[in-house]
Amino acid sequence: MLVSLPKEWVIENELSKGSVLLVDVGNDIIIRSKRESKSKEAVINYPSRYGDMPLKEITGAYLLGYDIILVKGENSISYNDRELIKDAIKRLVGLEIIDEDAHNIKAQFLLDATTLDPRKILQRINSIINGMYKDTISSFNNKNDSIMKIIRVRDEEINRQYFLLVRFLRSALLDNTLAERINLTSIDILDYRIAANLFEGVGDSIVELARLVANTKDVEMDVIDTALMIGKLQSLAVNAFLNNNRAYSIQVINEYNTLNNIFEKMKSHKDASTLNIIYMLDRIAKAWTDVADLVKTID
Predict the structure, then answer these.
(1) Cα dihedral angle (42, 45, 46, 49), rounded to 10 degrees?
(2) What is the mean pLDDT of the chain?
(3) Do residues 217 and 284 share a domain?
(4) Distant-in-sequence contacts of 85-89, Cβ < 8 A, 24+ apart
């Protein structure tokens, strides 16, 4: 059998006799050229064009999928600024410094995107959130001076995993081969992006919840019971999303309605500090409802 290739496509992909092609056989036959992918390099000026540290530019280049990030100094990079830049790089999973001198710091993304699994990254974030939430709830009436520090460190790890997931999802949108490998459509990738944002927001809310609890003398038992209900809501919502389980999704929405009624009754007789805790618990519960709401209503 012979396959005819469009001349324009052959020229565009610089193919000639002996060139290797990739053939994917599924419901359709897809032919791709096998060209060495070129590393994308971002050059970031130091100081930034706004006159400050280029930390946000480093994160932005990472999220946009750049493989090499070069911080290029107009003059020598000071020791303190160098440490801040290197710390920003270390906060990004897979990004490692490969070269530096007085004027430059060069980092490269060393992970193979084809080995990453968005489902596992989301599960990792969920596991960290689960531990953060349980520790925060246990501190309601058992104050722990170190809990805030522990919670903040875990939230930083959530951010690291979140940035990695966002980088991967953006790459998958631009690379059909990568998207097909993980068996996600463009809509699925968008849903994962929304879910990742909701997960990251829950992490921030738990940090705030821990701060409120630390500044509250005692938390009443009915608030603790409600907080425990939200922990179960998390498990249901994440399972609903990852397994596309509509029954779980509906259960999450129904249980949130029950929680919302409880919150409304509480608000009529609680002091200001407790009301702040209730508000934060409601924000967390609503986020899990939004995660469950991403489940497809039809196949």
Answers:
(1) -130
(2) 90
(3) yes
(4) 85/46, 85/53, 85/54, 85/55, 85/58, 88/55, 88/58, 88/59, 89/58
Residue 272, token pair as written in the block: 């200001």
208 domain-assigned: yes
Tell me the C-alpha distance between 215 and 273, whole Å. 8
Domain boundary among 59, 78, 109: 109
Tell me the whole-structure pTM to 2 decimals: 0.84
Number of domains in the chain: 2
Region 46-53: mean pLDDT is: 79
Strand ranges (E), 74-122: 95-100, 104-109
Same domain, 182 and 231: yes
Residue 69 contacts by C-beta under 8 Å, 6 or more apart in sequence?
41, 42, 44, 58, 61, 62, 89, 95, 106, 107, 108
Which residues constitute the domain of residue 102?
Answer: 41-109
